[in-house]
Amino acid sequence: MTTDYSKYKNLSPFELKDELIRIASSRTDRLMLNAGRGNPNFLATLPRSAFFNLGQFAVSESELSFSYMTVGVGGQARVEGIEERFERFISENRHKAGIFFLGRALSYVRDQLGLSASQFLHEMVEGILGCNYPTPPRMLSLSEQIVGQYVLREMVGSDLPTDSTDFFATEGGTAAMAYIFNSLKQNNLIKKGDKVAIGMPIFSPYIEIPQLEEYGLEEVAIQADPNLNWQYPDEELEKLKDPAVKIFFCVNPSNPPSVKMNDASLKKIADIVAHHRPDLMILTDDVYGTFADDFHSLFAVCPENTILVYSFSKYFGATGWRLGVIGTHKNNVMDRLLQALPNEKKEALSRRYSSLTTEAENLKFIDRLVADSRAVALNHTAGISTPQQVQMVLFSLFALMDSKEDYKATIKNVIRRREAALYRELGVKPSEDANAVDYYTLLDLETVCRALYGEKFAQWMSDRSSSAEILFRIAEETGIVLLPGEGFGVQKPAARASLANLSEYQYAAIGRSLRKLADEYYQAFLKANG
What we know:
It is a single chain. This protein has helices at 13-24, 46-65, 82-92, 99-111, 117-129, 141-155, 172-186, 205-208, 234-237, 263-275, 298-301, 333-339, 343-352, 365-372, 386-400, 406-426, 445-453, 455-464, 467-478, 504-528, and strands at 33-34, 165-170, 195-200, 218-223, 245-251, 281-285, 306-311, 324-329, 440-444, 480-481, 483-484, 494-498. It is of the alpha/beta class. The strands form three sheets. A seven-stranded mixed sheet has the order 2-8-7-6-5-3-4, with helices on both faces. It has a three-stranded antiparallel sheet with strand order 9-12-11. Helix 2 packs across helix 15 and helix 7 packs across helix 14 (365-372). The chain is globular, with a radius of gyration of 25 Å. Keywords: Aminotransferase, Pyridoxal phosphate, Transferase.
């Protein structure tokens, strides 16, 4: 193969992916298998069915308001009598998929969450019709309470009261991250030259964002150790004691190792915050937390210091919906740091936000996020679309009412069967770790070669082949697309494979193809060594 791999060395793994796909697709006599991206091929159907059925009820409510007009014109839904009309709609349409779920959802909201059924229905109907600006712009009021119930249950458990946290609905986790970094900079909570600690390995764009010219942050790697099942050693976490480190940024469970932070690491970080760094800001992306067993976010142990980001994209198969939330504790370190800024900076920020409130100096960080997301002046039109918020609420209710966790158990079983199929055909045992989530798997070059043919072969492979070369050869010779681990901050040659976006038999085919390639390398090793 004559490809010059050096020209790709600065590309993000997700940009390199396009070149690998081109090579893997170059032959018409085989199927290209793209295990490079984490878009799941499973999704939650019941809350989607409920969404479309709710839309039909909402249209009838709109038409009822302007029933004297010609067909095709509706008005604003009326809250008076809406619960009775909804009960009649449920009764008349029980045969349709999703209708029974809507009836149960209303009962849950009323009887378990203690919210007004009429107000909830009115918010959902207006929301799904998309007939009003999002009000409040941060998030619809009852939607925030319901989504907050779900997020805190999954990320924290029962240790935090649901009214302890403010939520801001965003266009997925990616928008959340863009908004957060921008507001941290705009509000002088980070500035050029500050240190940001990053839990490595990590989703590659999170390495790239702090390096951008507008942020200019100095990155401090907090390296997870593969020999400790990808947990952070104490000596790495000790770096967080440095007062020059303004923020700790991590994905939990990790991407790509796909391992949740263990209790010892959570306790270590909480102790550092409590006794050494009460001013440390923590930013955690917990999108894979719902795939873990007994998951606890850093928000559970350091709620006042942590900005929690959660996306609905992976667990519900909703990447195209762009649904995410930012959560901050109502008593948080960002607000305290804002109050501790020098007077001249506080005055400048008061001028920045003066069009929003007469007490701009007291504006909470999360509300500054909302304003900054729309260049402040357009704050009154901030917020994600109301139909998006309705679908987010239905996803949340679907999970909250799944008392036996049937959906969760099913999708976790799906990805673990896929992992088993890949490694079975490869001829290597997957690592056994109670903290593993298995949404991705890291194929470590040396570990796989050592397991197949011993230490000498592993060293020979490591000396003669870069992981980039191997990935290009895999793409060219097998039609399989994997992503380079180095792009995610992995220090050893490795490839990331998603276990979410292909079928079980296809993962078995990947395992067989990789084993065939390893066998060919081994024959070359034997020939080279006589």
